[in-house]
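User: Okay, second chain of the day. Same drill as before: sequence in, structure tokens out.
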Amino acid sequence: MATHTKQSHSTRKTKTPGTMKEVLSANVRHQQRRAKATASPPEAQRSPHQRIKDADRKRKAH
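Assistant: Same drill. Structure tokens below.
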């Protein structure tokens, strides 16, 4: 067990902060792209309250 923990520590140290930053920035970029994709339909811009009201209206119409 002791050798295993030592090994994991050494691997963590080899990672440079530069690469870590790159990974984080890439992550942020990916999240922004996904946010844009989800916000594009008009349904997303509507408030949840408005969506509930519309759903109620549809239910009553039937």
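The chain is about 85% helix and 0% strand.

User: Thanks, on to the next one.
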